[in-house]
UniProtKB/TrEMBL annotation:
Organismal lineage: Bacteria, Pseudomonadati, Pseudomonadota, Alphaproteobacteria, Hyphomicrobiales
Pfam families membership: Response_reg (PF00072)
Keywords recorded for this protein, A-Z: Phosphoprotein
PANTHER family, A to Z: CHEMOTAXIS TWO-COMPONENT RESPONSE REGULATOR, STRESS RESPONSE REGULATOR PROTEIN 1
Family annotation (PROSITE patterns): RESPONSE_REGULATORY
Protein known as: Response regulator
Domain (Response regulatory): residue spans on this chain: 7-121
Organism for this UniProt entry: Bradyrhizobium iriomotense
4-aspartylphosphate PTM sites in chain numbering: D57
Keyword Phosphoprotein: yes
Coiled-coil segments: none
InterPro entries: Bact_response_regulator, CheY-like_superfamily, Sig_transdc_resp-reg_receiver
Domain of life of the organism encoding this protein: Bacteria
Amino acid sequence: MPLRTFSIAAVDDDHRLLESLRDLLESAGYSVRSFKSAMSFLEDDTALSESDCIITDIGMPAIDGFELNELVKEARPELPVIFITARHEIADQQRAVAQGSHFFRKPFDGQALLAAIGQALQSGDGG
């Protein structure tokens, strides 16, 4: 019986980063769906129900990554959310860790991100 393919939702307003994430995650055997904003993720009828993990940028217009995480946790508290950001504010990292999530600053180490995803999927709690 084949192993289940996990589905990762990548949410970022930088299309180049979305392409890089897609390449990295697909090379590791994940199914990837990319979203250019939190709103596009939330407006997709199946994104929330079919995702096994979300990787989201923090600094996005309209709805930022923290707000997206709060909305996701209302519907699916067990869904892991991993934060990435180009911002260098200590408060962002503290807030992400307080929410039980992994946190990466851009540019991030791809292998470290893959390890965090594997850990999050194994524990099913985002951290």
